[in-house]
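Per your request, structure below.
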């Protein structure tokens, strides 16, 4: 199963567009309804092939973990694949694959999602399987049982994916400093000591609280009609009673501004390419949609690809960087980080790289964008959104992600039109709002170990 690396950061692409649909084409308009037990359903017809993507999104993620229980949302994703009253150990995966299907799952701060992609004739079977593990998951204190064995698996995953990865270690340190007392400050995979202390009772409490129809969203994309999906959903999920009439309180909260600018440095012998970064607090599509759209365009012009200001100046013209980019994780629910980053060419120091990078940024902040480059960026974002509607799984993922953090179907459908309305004035105002001189930030340096030692010796000599 795929947990978001270091809390969803690698899986959420920087500056990603919010939508894959075009409002001008009615055939891409989804049908939505709610089952009597509170489960929301979204149907996305796509009749080009007899295939369906079936997703269940639970409105729970790492932000909702109790204090001292970090990692339980991700651990629970693992446990969901193990065993139920009617499905033997690891048989869930075998059943799907034996029927020619694909499956996986992922956890973020804001949600947990499970999906299967199968032939149309297998859709009801997928619903039966998901309904089974929504109600009859086995969680016990058997050392070889599903909960304790997967707890050990997650601990090993943490060792391999985080503790053995210098870049992710630095990222974890930055997020802790950037988000202070906010739940985003802990990696989704959790702290090693807290994961190791999770008990089967913790798992049962979590399961009973969050894994219930009223906290779930069903997305079905593919060769189906709304009527077919409704009939199957009522026959399977509709038979499940919600575990509580009380809606659980989500862990979302205001993000406090940074009190000061900080420098965090991490060095390791495994580092082959130094990295320079600055992390600012920005906004999100959920927090302030207009601001986020404008910032999306601004960061795309500044550092969104090979035609961006930063890439052209630092990589193509000055040749002092191997790459240079800027973006923000705007699909988070709470205030998202905006990240400026670059890696130096051979022989270029991070100080020289930073000076050149910020010269480009400061020039933009002082003089703004041209109408032409903003128009090019917003049209590119809108076009990419429309082209990507050809991905059935991508559409299902998009709608699920948007609805799970409190967005609407209309937010998805209107994105191309909304992004095209961003002006050059809107874009530069958003960028100044995030990167202004009065804004504190976290600067992060990733270095080979010998460079760190050299820097320390230089400071000693001074």
């Amino acid at each position: 199963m795929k947990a978001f690396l270091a809390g969803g950061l690698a899986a959420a692409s920087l500056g990603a567009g919010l939508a894959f649909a075009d409002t001008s084409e009615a055939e891409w308009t989804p049908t939505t309804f709610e089952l009597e037990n509170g489960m929301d359903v979204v149907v996305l017809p796509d009749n080009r092939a007899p295939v369906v993507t079936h997703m269940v999104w639970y409105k729970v993620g790492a932000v909702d973990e109790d204090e001292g229980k970090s990692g339980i949302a991700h651990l629970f994703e693992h446990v969901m694949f193990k065993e139920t009253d009617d499905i033997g150990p690891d048989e869930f995966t075998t059943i799907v694959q034996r029927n020619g299907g694909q499956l996986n799952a992922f956890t973020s701060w804001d949600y947990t999602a499970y999906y299967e992609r199968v032939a149309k004739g297998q859709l009801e079977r997928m619903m039966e399987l998901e309904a089974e593990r929504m109600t009859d998951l086995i969680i016990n204190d058997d050392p070889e049982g599903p909960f304790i064995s997967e707890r050990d698996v997650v601990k090993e995953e943490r060792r391999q994916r985080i503790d053995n990865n210098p870049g992710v270690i630095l990222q974890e340190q930055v997020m802790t400093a950037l988000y202070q007392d906010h739940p985003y400050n802990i990696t989704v995979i959790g702290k090693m000591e807290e994961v190791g202390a999770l008990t089967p009772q913790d798992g049962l409490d979590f399961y009973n609280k969050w894994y219930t129809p009223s906290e779930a969203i069903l997305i079905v994309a593919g060769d189906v009609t709304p009527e077919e999906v409704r009939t199957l959903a009522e026959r399977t999920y509709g038979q499940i009673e919600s575990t509580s009439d009380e809606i659980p309180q989500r862990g979302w909260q205001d993000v406090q501004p940074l009190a000061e600018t900080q420098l965090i440095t991490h060095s390791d012998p495994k580092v082959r390419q130094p990295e320079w970064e600055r992390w600012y607090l920005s906004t999100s599509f959920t927090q302030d949609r207009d601001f986020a759209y404008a910032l999306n365009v601004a960061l795309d012009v500044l550092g969104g690809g090979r035609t961006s200001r930063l890439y052209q100046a630092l990589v193509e013209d000055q040749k002092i960087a191997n790459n240079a980019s800027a973006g923000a994780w705007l699909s988070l629910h709470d205030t998202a980080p905006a990240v400026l980053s670059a890696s130096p060419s051979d022989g270029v120091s991070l100080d020289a790289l930073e000076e050149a990078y910020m010269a480009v940024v400061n020039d933009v902040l002082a003089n703004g964008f041209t109408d032409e480059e903003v128009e090019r960026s917003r049209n590119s974002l809108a076009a990419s959104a429309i082209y990507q509607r050809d991905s059935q799984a991508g559409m299902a993922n998009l709608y699920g992600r948007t609805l799970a953090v409190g967005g609407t179907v209309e937010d998805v459908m209107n994105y191309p039109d909304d992004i095209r309305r961003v002006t050059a004035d809107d874009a530069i105002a958003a960028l100044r709002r995030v990167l202004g001189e009065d804004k504190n930030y976290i600067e992060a340096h990733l270095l080979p170990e010998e460079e760190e030692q050299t820097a320390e010796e230089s400071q000693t000599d001074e």
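The radius of gyration is 23 Å.

Regards,
D.
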